[in-house]
């Protein structure tokens, strides 16, 4: 089958078309004919091998985890899914391929009204947002939330879910994205690149940081209520406050993958959540390379989706 990956760890220019065996169903796995997959910054760590420090990665290395497609084979013991079902799922790796193995506990069925291209943009970012809200914050009583980095994929899912839960949401974004937001969705919209606007914020029960840490950390902390909690997906080193007020999201373990996907699919089907798409790409090495170069130079609002 056709796949896109690297024969040796390297960089984006080393991506190449591969001819690899179609996966066979093993315990707990669905074999999915890939209809669409999303590009994620994490995939760069598979390409250059840096993620090999943390997990086994065999060569040739095929990135990709956010996939949507049709079940064509499966472990016979799996009864929750049938051949021919359309699904969205979170693969371990090898999503950049015509067929991919997906753990059935990290997949959910797709209703007809959700396209494969839309579904492929959900898993990583959507599951992270779900795990923050229903995992890290499950025992926290809160109403006012500030999201730092709301223009990215995780931030976009966060504010849409929180709005659907009737929370009072304010966001920090780059001012160049202002026209892409409906400001009526938020209590306040302020800008990284205009720090004076951040000073106008009130106090928040919860601050969620999904942006790179930077020199504005103290400015954000000034708007955390005395009993408030700050959660960060990019580390907490620059946030100098009582450690009891901080949660380093990636030092926690929620992984409510299937529950998250089921929830997200329902929210998309009911149009409470939309999945911004930056561009639809062909299953082509040059197009994927170009998209990754764009990801490295600027942060588009929305996912790059590859249709297979």
UniProtKB/TrEMBL annotation:
Q: E.C. number, please?
A: 1.1.1.-
Q: Which UniProt keywords apply?
A: Oxidoreductase
Q: Show the SUPFAM superfamilies listed in the entry.
A: GroES-like, NAD(P)-binding Rossmann-fold domains
Which InterPro entries does the record match to this protein?
ADH-like_N, ER, GroES-like_sf, Lipid_raft_assoc_Zn_ADH, NAD(P)-bd_dom_sf
The record lists the membrane-crossing segments as: none
A GO molecular-function descriptor = oxidoreductase activity
Q: What class of enzyme is it?
A: oxidoreductase
Residues forming the Enoyl reductase (ER) domain are: 10-306
Full protein name: Quinone-oxidoreductase like protein, chloroplastic
């Amino acid at each position: 089958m056709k796949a896109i990956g690297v024969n040796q760890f390297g960089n984006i220019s080393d991506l190449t078309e591969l001819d690899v065996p179609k996966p066979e169903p093993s315990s707990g796995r669905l074999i999915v004919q890939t209809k669409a997959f999303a590009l994620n910054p994490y995939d760069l760590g598979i390409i250059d091998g840096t993620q090999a420090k943390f997990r086994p990665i065999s060569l040739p290395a095929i990135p990709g985890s956010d996939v949507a497609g049709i079940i064509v084979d499966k472990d016979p013991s799996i009864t929750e899914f049938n051949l021919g079902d359309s699904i969205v799922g979170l693969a371990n790796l090898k999503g950049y391929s015509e067929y991919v193995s997906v753990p059935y506990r990290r997949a959910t069925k797709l209703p007809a009204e959700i396209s494969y291209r839309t579904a492929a943009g959900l898993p990583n970012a959507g599951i992270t947002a779900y795990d923050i809200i229903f995992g890290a914050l499950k025992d926290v009583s809160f109403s006012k939330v500030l999201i730092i980095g709301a223009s990215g994929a995780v931030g976009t899912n966060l504010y849409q879910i929180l709005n659907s839960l009737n929370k009072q949401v304010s966001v920090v974004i780059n001012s160049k994205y202002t026209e892409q937001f409906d400001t009526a969705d938020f209590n306040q919209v302020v800008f990284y690149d205009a720090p004076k606007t951040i000073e106008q914020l009130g106090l928040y029960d919860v601050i969620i940081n999904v942006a790179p840490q930077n020199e504005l950390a103290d400015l954000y902390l000034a708007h955390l209520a005395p009993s408030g909690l700050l959660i960060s997906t990019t580390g907490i080193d620059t946030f100098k406050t009582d450690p009891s007020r901080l949660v380093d999201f990636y030092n926690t373990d929620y992984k409510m993958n299937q529950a998250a996907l089921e929830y997200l699919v329902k929210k998309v089907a009911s149009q409470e959540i939309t999945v911004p798409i930056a561009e639809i790409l062909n299953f082509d090495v040059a197009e994927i390379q170009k998209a990754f170069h764009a990801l490295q130079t600027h942060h588009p609002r929305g996912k790059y989706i590859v249709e297979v």
